[in-house]
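#onboarding

Welcome to the new folks! Below is a worked example of what a typical request in this channel looks like: someone posts a single protein sequence, and someone else replies with the predicted structure as tokens. Don't worry about understanding the tokens yet, we'll cover that in week two.

Example request:
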Amino acid sequence: MPEPDRLALMFSTLCFLGAFAAAASRVVAAAYRATWPHHALMALGFLGQCWVLLNRGRELGRCPITQPWELLLFISWGVVLMYWVVGPAYRVSLMGIITAPLVWLFQVVALILQGTMPPRPGDGILAARPKIDPWLEWHATVSLLAYAAFALAASAGILFLFQNRQLKSGRPHRLIFNLPPLHNLGRGLLGLLHAGFALLSVGILSAYLMETRPGTLKLAASWAVWAAYLAILFHQWRQGWPQRRLAEVAALVFLLPLGTLWIVSQH
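Example response:
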């Protein structure tokens, strides 16, 4: 990675750490709504992500998800994108208390991986450009956005379970009452599951339009993740999950896409 891009990624990572600190300070101050420093830091971090991904994509001539650190950065970008969409839609004003530390962690790991991986032969602006299949790029993009939605849903589920346990303990910490209300958090979690499932469905269908169809293992992994989330949403449609149980399921089932992430990202 060129030094300006690495610096941009470091700057983005620090912005998300600052955004988490800003959101946490609002919780401590018993102020539910996020303020402009939090939004500004989230926006700056997002712009840093865009800078690195655009430059890396221009350098590779394709969607920049060819190495593990790129994969983590792309999913982090997708998580922040989902944050901008889902947070306001479900009145979860402090959803950054979930998003910012998750993205910060992913990008710290990405920076560590990028620093320890030697450049691959053929990388660089002067490298020969392979023929790009637009369906392959579309498939990769929307599938990873789906995984980002599932990651944010799992994080929301963990926060929901933590709050719920505190409230039922009989002696909850006072800061619990300053976090997003459980009802809003549960609705946001369900919205993320729906968004992730829709995106993954589009991603799988587009795989069958590619010039070279993905391997059997990759398709099987994608269909397994799709079937798991279909089962969750079908049960929600037929009978409805209690919000606590839905949070548990969202957090637990995310282990499946997390475990198959590198398999389904392969071209």
